[in-house]
Input
Amino acid sequence: MTPIVPVILSGGSGTRLWPMSTPEQPKQMLALTAEQTMLQLTAARASSEQYDAPIVVANARHAEMIEEQLTAIGCRPQALILEPMGRNTAPAIALAALCANDPSAPLLVMPSDHVIEDVAAFHAAINAALPMVEQGWLVTFGITPDAPETGYGYIKVGEPVASGVHRVDRFVEKPPRAAAEAMLASGDHAWNGGIFLFRADAFLDALARHEPVMLHAVRRAVAEGEQSGSRICPSAEAFAEAPNQSIDYAVMEKSDRVAVVPVTMGWNDVGSWDALHAISITDAAGNAIRGEVIALDTNNCFVRSDGARVAMVGVSDLIVVASGGDMLILPRGRSQDVKALLEAMKDKPRRASTPPDAS
Amino acid sequence: MTPIVPVILSGGSGTRLWPMSTPEQPKQMLALTAEQTMLQLTAARASSEQYDAPIVVANARHAEMIEEQLTAIGCRPQALILEPMGRNTAPAIALAALCANDPSAPLLVMPSDHVIEDVAAFHAAINAALPMVEQGWLVTFGITPDAPETGYGYIKVGEPVASGVHRVDRFVEKPPRAAAEAMLASGDHAWNGGIFLFRADAFLDALARHEPVMLHAVRRAVAEGEQSGSRICPSAEAFAEAPNQSIDYAVMEKSDRVAVVPVTMGWNDVGSWDALHAISITDAAGNAIRGEVIALDTNNCFVRSDGARVAMVGVSDLIVVASGGDMLILPRGRSQDVKALLEAMKDKPRRASTPPDAS
Output
């Protein structure tokens, strides 16, 4: 059987876990959940004999960091495709599909910055999907929801088409709270985790049908691009012509033979400090602490420092993150507001490091 | 009339305002309340023609910093006495009294790290005290209390002995809360602010009577010490013989002719971050912020940074201080717990700066 080609999408710009994640070193490059970085964990998750060497699609500025991190775990990608600019997931996956050595190979598309705690469940879902994938179906994995999250897209799970595989009834954009609660209660909706399995040619066929302009632009970007070893640099001029669209919008929602494999696998997109807190091990006082931290009479706090020494006393339910000369403080449950902080900081360029209190 | 000699005590070790104050740069060396440091403000407070050049008693490690700060405001001390070790206030003041050019000069003893907002009221109190001081009385200034503070000593104000000057009925050590409330309610108690006015010879006479061992030790420390320009280095061996005692315990509580001048002058000992917050100017949201700070939806917080950029959202009533690679976070009202944090840190030496999350 044709080995599966992991396609690792490393396009995240890394704002939501600021100050640890930054444009220079986004979330997937950080060891947030384990000794290994999230990119390394993602690559390791699809590295058995069932898998070919991965294709990584990334921002050009991260090329060396990615190569270093993958080399460190003995992973040698068949291609490292360096996007000249971010154009969302559909063009990124099209790049990978066009560069795959074998056009009939199943591509396992994975964001590089998600946590999957139950890798066996993940592999079981992949194996459930494979027969339909061989027949040309586009398969997405539907995460069993356990909360009425408003930050994810949902999938309405339809009738079964094979063991463990269902037709997709409907994709639902990030819903308002009431709709999320209704979908959670219904029992027949899953989160859209952004993980896909399909043959490269099946994906490209669907793209040709639904987004011919995109396919043309990406095809030309590859043809007119440059290659050096495993590094592939698509033509920026051509790639810029590709519409900025997600795979859901460009292909999945429009195709007929789209299936979902519902799976419960300890998935988490680590999309905020609260999300990371939720999957962190806590001490007896409910604190999840990493780095040089002294905490007295402190409860249910999430504290990370990779530089400053943080001393705290008498606080509860705070998220505190110190990194690279920056310090973030907010209450648990408010970590979506990091975006607003970054927005506010745009107008306030960093000062020189002269202490304002120096005499 | 003999000019008054300011005696500036710079012995504080600077733990309560950690991480900004440190043993290397204690509170009095910092510009906490204004453009000038607290030492500079103290010196400037007693610099009119009524005053002689000051005598400064300090820890030897701060000699250069003190000279730089005083030079910067055009103040040239008649003596900078460098204590070989801290022996509390009584020996420190004895050093100054023995080194004063004129033994009959009134000494105005001032801690170097207090705030006095109403300097005119301070000067009026000094002038009220002077006639009694000339006659050999030992005068202390009694701060009109406005809260049942348990962190200060109290003075029971007795019968008047001159205009604005009262006999001291009794010195009261730092009281429990109920006693503090009773004294506040009584209307005839004042805080002991640690500011004194007396002739050098009167103080030395009292010391000879009540603490002859201390006087002998200090006298020998000066005689066997070294002098270089205005710097005076008492003999460590001799000074170590001086009992470690406060002026209150050694002299004021034991002498007969001890008077208090009650005064309301916006005094604050800035003994904690809460105390500094209390005298800080706040913005419309009740925040007192200095340094590179981005605060959204943040209320009644005290935030200081002289290095790290601090970003906070959705928090209230927090004290946050960033300085020199250290970060302090605690709720308002808990700043006395800085001591416990420093205690806890003693057992945790600073790590090297390797980021714990680096991959």
User: Anything to note?
Assistant: The first strand of chain B starts at residue 5 and ends at 10.
